[in-house]
Amino acid sequence: MAVAGKIDVLSRSDLQRFFDILGSKGYRIVGPSVRDGSVMWETIQFVSDLPSGWRDHQEPGRYRLEQTGSRDIFGVVHGPQSLKPFAFAPREPLLQIERCKEGFTARPTLPQQRKVAVIGARACDLAGLAIQDQVFLQSEYHDPYYATRREGLFIIAVNCTRALQTCFCASMDTGPRAKNGFDLVLTEVDDQLLVEAGSEAGADLLSDLALSPASQKVISEAAACVDACAQSQIRRVDRTGLPQALYDAHEHPRWDDVAARCLACANCTMVCPTCFCHKVEEIPDLSRQNAEHARLWDSCFTQEHGYIHGKNLRPTITDRYRMWMTHKFASWIDQFGTSGCVGCGRCITWCPVGIDLTEELSSLLASSSRSHA
Amino acid sequence: MSTRDAENTRPKLAVFKFASCDGCQLSVLNLEDDLLALGQALDIAYFPEASSHMNPGPYDLALVEGSITTEEDAHRIRSVREQVKVLITIGACATAGGIQALRNWADLESFKQAVYPSPQYIQSLQTSTPISEHVPVDFELWGCPIDKGQLLRVITDLLAGVRPHLQAESVCLECKRRGNVCVMVAKGLACLGPVTRAGCGAICPGMGRDCYGCFGPSEGARKGPGVPPNTASLASCFHNELQLIPVDVMRRFRGINGYTSSFKEESARWDKKT
Fold first, then answer.
1. I need a labelling partner for B102 at 20 to 30 A (CA). Which of A72, A133, A143, B182 fits?
2. pLDDT of A288
């Protein structure tokens, strides 16, 4: 929620000044940076480090960047990374185990708390982070590793004014306007940045900058751009009847069709802002005196993830794809009270063979309702 | 305890070489600091690549590099097996037949005529085959070359009396954990990562190039658990979306691990279309 709803204009030199202030307060600033044909979160220092003039084009199984020559700083909507790696680390050492006379000791290896300011998060990313917060912080299994990383985050969101072919946040009620979960939010319109605070910390920083207020005309124009972005989304998810409709489709032949294309490579789950599955590994040393106990991102698409003692619960790709999609759109609602999908479309773009979950879901639901009619 | 006693209590390690480039043995030598720890944990009794001081068997643990390509080697691997308690194959050659298994689809006689001035002296089998086709193997390490971390892990587990276990997931998980941009989606490269076993640390995509499957099929490889990777879908995508002609699709799968089931079968399907 915006603090007092005050919207200011942030010029490029103001933005650099803002970076300098963040730096002086001990923040590492992270923003989208062009790398290897996409944008990835990288440590930045200057406004010129941001992907000025670049635009991303995304479609199923395909991502391309284009330099348009425009002055837009936030023309790239997103890369493969959401905010997930900042709080839920891809690999997190949990315990250092040492052998001793009495047996062994296990020392927790909590991450050092670091202040990280992320600029360029989108509404879908914020929605994903809110869901991960719920999983890692608000459940009975409060995760101190996640909590330490999460507490150090300062989030500067950007309202989307351009939808990708793969976006469907409007139908998931998560975007394209950032509603909460940020410290500051920017809207880029006509070569101008508008800025609004979303937290006390954000408001404090804004007051340090002493910016001038935006005109009502520009504010309305920015709001219209974000609304137009929502209107322009070509993909959508019809959530009528969920979760039950998907449970009813459990034996649908479409699962086998999608499994024939699915590689079970796990890319969809790796790029998903909400997927939280992980496994632990032990790394002993040769002396057998010490071992590291670490957590890694895992996926319901791997063979081992479905393995329990003596049995694999999900031996086929059909089982795994059904598990994933049913969790996202149905059992997640029963488990956490929200959908597990935020509509960012990353799983569509970063699927090497371009499987589109919106298409799969609508096929599963359409014909299942027909068959039950 | 005298040094001699300590020597006797450490398990004896032997390293054998068959048809191979020696790269996997070099991975053992490249263990650097860990090599000292390895030397303390094991009695490195037979390792001709490292030392001309070679102790006779029997051995507790053998690392076997290379594939079987001659009649003599086919006999030698049987005698190696008789001398060792635990036999681990190291690398694509020993585990899957290696790049030299390309001969399995070709005519050996014509190769000999083309390469050697006196081909009558060449004593070679028509095929290059993995060690497991000749003797029972206790554990297989994939890769060209192997990952030294995986090697160390397997040895550590064996020394601790634990059954070694390595992941059989796709390279994509390593790419994403590492923060690599997908070279298939962002650059249109025909990457084998989605059907290839993790373990290398996704080093090729990390350098902006496509995975060529040197760790073999991701799961369900030969005797492993799980279902064979969906090579058919990936191959169709290479052809239909990335515009690879059938012979190029065939060659993607018929590489370093081309003689392994699932890669072998996929290459055969595209061979028919060329």
1. B182
2. 84
Residue range A226-253, pLDDT digits in tens: 999 999 999 999 999 999 999 999 999 9
Both A46 and A160 in a single domain?
yes
A223 or A370, which is more confident? A223
- Are A126 and A56 in the same domain? yes
Report if residue A188 sits inside a domain. yes
Give B220's contacts in chain A (Cβ within 8 Å): 303
Identity of the residue numbered B260: T
Contact criterion met (CB below 8 Å) for A216 and A149: no
Q: What's the rounded Cα separation, in Å, for the pair A355 and A166? A: 11
Residue A282 sits in the same domain as residue A162? no
> In one letter, which amino acid is A285?
D
Question: Is residue A27 one of the residues assigned to a domain?
Answer: yes
Smallest CA–CA distance, residue A98 to chain B, in Å, is 15
Condensed to tens digits (0 to 9), the pLDDT of residues A92-122 reads: 999 999 999 999 999 999 999 899 999 999 9
Task: Answer yes or no: do A311 and A334 share one domain.
Answer: yes
Q: Which domain holds residue A166?
A: 7-82+110-231
Tokens of A75: 């023309």
pLDDT in tens, B237-254: 999 999 999 999 999 999
In this structure, the answer to whether residues A27 and A138 fall within a common structural domain is yes
165-194 in chain B: CB under 8 A from chain A: 167-170, 172-173, 176-188, 191, 193-194
Contact criterion met (CB below 8 Å) for B269 and B232:
yes
Closest residue of A to B151, CA-based? A286
Domain match, A57 and A174 both: yes
Same domain (yes/no): A219, A315: no
Cβ of B183 and A260 within 8 Å?
no
| Residue A67 β-bridge partners | A54
Number of domains, chain A: 2
Mean pLDDT (chain B, rounded): 93
Residue A91 lies in a domain: no
Q: Could you list the beta-strand ranges (E) of chain B.
A: 12-17, 43-46, 59-65, 84-90, 139-141
**Residue A218 shares a structural domain with residue A323:** no
Q: Tell me which residue of A169, A165, A136 sits closest to A153, measured CA to CA.
A: A136
Q: Measured over all CA atoms, what is the biggest interatomic distance in chain B, rounded to whole angstroms? A: 68
Task: Kindly state whether residue A53 falls inside one of the protein's structural domains.
Answer: yes
pTM, whole model, 2 decimals? 0.95
Look at strands A38-43 and A28-35 and give their pairing. Answer: antiparallel
B254 CB-near residues (< 8 Å, 6+ apart): B102, B105, B263, B264, B267, B271
DSSP state of B132: G
